[in-house]
Specification:
The chain is of the alpha+beta class and 147 residues long. The chain has a domain at 43-142. Helix content is 31%, strand content 22%. The protein has helices at residues 7-15, 17-21, 35-39, 43-57, 60-71; strands at residues 75-80, 88-93, 98-103, 111-117, 130-134, 140-142. The protein has a six-stranded antiparallel beta sheet. The termini are far apart.
Amino acid sequence: MTPLVTESARRRKRFGALGALFEPKQPEPEPVVSEPVLRRLNPEEQTLVEAAELFNESPYSRTIAGIAKSLGEGRISMLPLSGTSAEIVLTIAWDISWYQYRIIPDSSQPVRLAERGYEANELPDRFKAWNASLDRQGRVMPDIPRF
C-alpha cells in the first residue's frame, strides 16, 4: 500500500523549505483529552489516549472519516494487547465493513492497517468491546470519563 501524499507534501518536495512558507496555516486539532483530565488517567487510559492521537494524525484517519460520511458513525474498539510493546488493536466497524489497525507508539510506523473485512459479525468477541467513538471530524475519541 502506498502512503498518501498530500498537496503540502508535494509542494515542500517541489519547492523545498520555501514552499512551506506559502502553505496556509492549518489550525491545531483539539487534543483527544485535555491536560487536566490527562493527569488523572490510569496508565491503560493514557495508552488509549496516546493511541487515539497517533491514529488521528495518520492518513488512515481521513479514510475512516470518509467512510463514516457514507456509512454513518462506526463502532470502535480499542484493545491493549499484553506484552512489553504497548500495542493497541483499533477496530472500527459498520454493519457492512470493518477495519483493524495496529498501533505501536515507539515504532517507525506507529499505525498500520492489519486487517479488514465485510461483515462485523466476523470479528472475534474480544474486538467488540466498543469503548470509543468518532467525533464530527472523524477522529477517534476513547470513552474516558471527563469528570
